[in-house]
Amino acid sequence: MQVELKNITKRFGSVVANKGVNLTIRPGEVLGLLGENGAGKSTLMNVLCGLYSPTEGEIVVDGTPVRFDGPGDAIRAGIGMVHQHFMLIPVFTVAENVVLGVEPVGRFDHLDLEKARAQVRRLSEEYGLAVDADALVETLPVGVQQRVEIIKVLFREADVLILDEPTAVLTPQEVDEFFQIVRSLCDAGKAIVFITHKLNEILEISDRISVIRRGEIVGSGDPKKLTRPDLAEMMVGHPVDFNVERAPFDPGEVILDVSDLTVLHDDGAVAVDHLSLQIRSGEVVGIAGVQGNGQSALIETLAGLRPPAGGKVLFEGADITTASPRARHRMGIAHIPEDRQAAGLIGSFTVAENMVLDSYYSARFSNRGSIDWGRVNAAATTATQDYDVRTPSIHATAGHLSGGNQQKLIVARELSRDTRLVIAGQPTRGLDVGSIAYIHARLMAARDEGDGILIVSSELDEILSVSDRILVMFKGRIVAEYEPNKAPVDKGTIGLAMAGAAP
Amino acid sequence: MSTEMNQAVQGRLIGRNQIEDLVLVPLYALVAALFLGALVMIATGVDLSTIGQSFIALVRGSVGSLNALSETLTAAAPLVLAGLGLALGFRAGLFNIGAEGQVIMGGLAAVVAGVAMADMPAVIALPAAIIAGALAGAFYAGIAGWLRAATGAHEVISTIMLNLISYRLLDYLLRTPLIQKEGRADPISKSIPEAAELPRLLTFIDPNLRLHAGVFLMLAMVVVAYWLLFRSKMGFEFRASGENAIAARFAGINAGLTIVLAMAVAGALAGLAGANQVLGVLGRATPGFSAGIGFDAIAVALLGRSHPVGVLFAGVLFGALEAGGRQMQVDAGVSIDLIGIIQALIIVFIAAPLLVKAIFPWGFRRTRSKEEEV
Ligand SMILES: Nc1ncnc2c1ncn2[C@@H]1O[C@H](COP(=O)(O)OP(=O)(O)O)[C@@H](O)[C@H]1O
Ligand SMILES: [Mg+2]
After folding, report:
1. Is A153 inside any structural domain?
2. Does residue A179 share a domain with residue A309?
3. Is A216 part of a structural domain of the chain?
4. Number of independent structural domains in chain A
5. What is the CATH number of the domain that holds A31?
6. Cβ proximity of A71 and A50 under 8 Å
7. How far, CA to CA in Å, does A47 sit from each of A54, A86, A213, B129, B275?
8. Same domain, yes or no, for A132 and A232?
9. What is the pLDDT along chain B (374 residues), one digit of tens a residue?
10. How far, in Å, is the centroid of ligand 2 from the Cα of A156?
């Protein structure tokens, strides 16, 4: 089944999300749709799957123009979408979720779950989608939940599968498994639209690439002939420098000295296991590791949010093992939380309010119990400009900003003051190339000014490109250390260490 | 750029969306509730002319005369005071059901302080009695806050329990020699001495007008609550914790302290409502003197969208319904319970803004809700 989008324009009020888009989707082929956050990828695909009706233009299926009045119409025509945000019911089993809305029923409206289970099993075997039909969805890792979403679409007999930023939530290992699934779907003759803003991924999996910028298709091509810089330039509209600029490595005195630190999870299990590390002034220490090996607990402890079960933390010589988050903040420790939506900002607060979320109480913004909003607004205006936070106004709510701008807002808040140590958890997860380069540049500037920087990331590429020293964390311990300045490090070796193979 | 500038300059001024939310929805909810109230009357066999009469009485009794306005404001003051407290709590993410108990404790403390100050001049006795009410309410609500912060006990449960305790405590204390009126066997408190009374404001026109200085207390507290919520450090902490407790904690805000403080402030305002009643209207405390103010105030806070100005309007509306309802009972013989039904219906409609928008499409911006939600 071949699907064509012809001259699709979609407006939301005055916002033009898509403008005159032409696109062809062919069976047995992966079409990679590349674009920055806010470029209009999701909107375009929501038009295709019947969720939005286009302002102009038409959808043509196998030569006949069609009109979708809802997702039901699209799925009947064989077009199904796995959304960026999953739409599963956590307390239902996999089989129940898959059949939801199209339940096989017997006499007296009896729900035939046995049939549902059988079909889930058949589909998972056919396409290599390993899932247990009887598992509760809430107990499954995200990677598996995603497979459930795919099975849901296949169950409805879709021939065209739209996958909206499917890899954003996956670990590197899960991404590899996921690509195998995509290939097997493709071999079975399905047409796949793969949406992402990650250059490596799109080059790896696509048969054809289209790049969308500000709602328009600005380029298409063959992944074998395109390079990362080509794609990045098409995507953001100007050449992107992938080399993170920084001063020569010249570390100073020790800023953070962690010794024999032990931290427990809420359930009492050991998260960080007798870990020691040091961070020096002017040094970026990158912690690599598969997620769930204690990195989050380590960051939380260093930020004062989780009391350690043992060990000691010294900051510039002072014992801060039990210092409160606010005390640490005042000492010049900046913390960029891993989960920016849940912990980094308050979506319903304005940009200005978020900008002072951890400094509103200081003499700079307050006197005698009341906040001086004039000064807050002035500081927020300066910070949004300095840190390139694109927002309609400092009074717009932060929840409405794109992910990249939300993260820039957090970075602006944390770095636009005197800092000595920056603790950054997954600082660029899910962001577009432009924002990633910008945030890296800001962190490097802090390093060059003599801050110590600790970056935790599950993206090995990121760790490799920014770190002066790389530590690999596995089961709560540091199991390997590399110094790229002394000897070139090999990705494969680090990968092995991440998987627990002692070097 | 100019629209951006405008937005920036206007800052926190109320935008179009908020007008829909704060003004249109409540207004339409009132209309719908009154209409359904009429249907209830028809269904219970009230004839049309009586229904007409009762609505006229409702208007007359609430705004139709100086006396009506006086009654409306007198009824509104405690609702607004307690409603402000609940609104602050809601903003901090605390669902405080305990205003009723806090009203009782505040009223009792005001009686005790007022009686003790009988020989003092009014400039000392009255503020002391008012402050005693606020402190007692703050302390009583603070218990629930502390339980939540220290042990995780949910404030809904603990405040309900504290309400039950306060009823019995009131019955008990009204019979103790310190509080009970001399020479009485039934549970009734000593009378508030004149020095501690909230002075009536309009007796120079007509000695029967009950409007008292509590109305100034109400207005002052609206301003204080607004300042607290949107201008103060403490209010910023309340709102941050209420909107996203995790982010607030990450930003270094002390969650436990914020909970206790928010409950205490909420309780202080409810305590003021209690003091307002005994010092301005009742002149003493009796069993059941709180008369459900703490529960009606929940509705007032919800109707007012937890915004101090919204709470003021909502409280005045509820006060008007109460005053008008009494007139309705007198003129048309319709039970005042109908007013309770109408008040409840307003809240139901407020809780379902989409329903309101579907019934009354006028005045709302035309949006395809399907696309807004995605
Ligand atoms: N429902 C909506 N109402 C108004 N604007 C929207 C809506 N959905 C998306 N937009 C706007 O359309 C543009 C494209 O958004 P989207 O398709 O989500 O981008 P992408 O998926 O590429 O990140 C953005 O500027 C976004 O703000
Ligand atoms: Mg998207």
Report:
1. yes
2. no
3. yes
4. 2
5. 3.40.50.300
6. yes
7. 6, 18, 17, 66, 60
8. yes
9. 333 333 333 334 445 566 777 778 888 888 899 899 899 889 988 888 888 998 899 999 999 999 999 999 999 999 999 999 999 999 999 999 999 999 999 999 999 999 999 999 999 999 999 999 999 999 999 999 999 999 999 999 999 999 999 999 999 999 999 899 999 989 999 999 999 999 999 999 999 999 999 999 999 999 999 999 999 999 999 999 999 999 999 999 999 999 999 999 999 999 999 999 999 999 999 999 999 999 999 999 988 889 999 999 999 999 999 999 999 888 888 888 888 888 888 888 887 888 888 888 877 765 443 333 32
10. 23
Instruction: Check: CB of residue A363 under 8 Å from CB of residue A451.
Output: no
Burial B204-238 (b: 16+ CB within 10 A, else e): eeeeebbbbbbbebbeebbeebbebbbebbbbbbb
* Chain B residues touching chain A at CB-CB below 8 Å: 4, 7-8, 10-12, 227, 231-234, 236, 239-240, 243-244, 246-254, 370-371, 374
Q: Which ligand 1 atom is nearest residue A165's CA? A: 21
* Number of Cβ atoms within 10 Å of the Cβ of A49: 25
How far, rounded to the nearest angstrom, does the alpha carbon of residue A31 sit from its chain's CA centroid? 21
Instruction: Tell me the torsion sign for CA atoms A360, A362, A368, A369.
Output: positive
Do the chains contact at A361 and B227, CB–CB below 8 Å?
no
Is residue A404 lining ligand 1, measured as CB closer than 6 Å?
no
pTM strictly above 0.95:
no
The reported pLDDT for the residue numbered B18 is 66
Q: Tokens standing for A249? A: 């490595």
A437 with A474, same domain: the answer is: yes
The boundaries of the domain holding residue A67 are 3-236
Sequence spans of domains, chain B = 76-306
| Nearest-10 Cα torsion for B241, B246, B251, B253 | 40
Task: State the Cα–Cα distance between residues A48 and A215, nearest whole angstrom.
Answer: 15
Q: How far is residue B198's CA from residue B217's CA, in Å, rounded to a whole number?
A: 10
Strand partners, A374: none
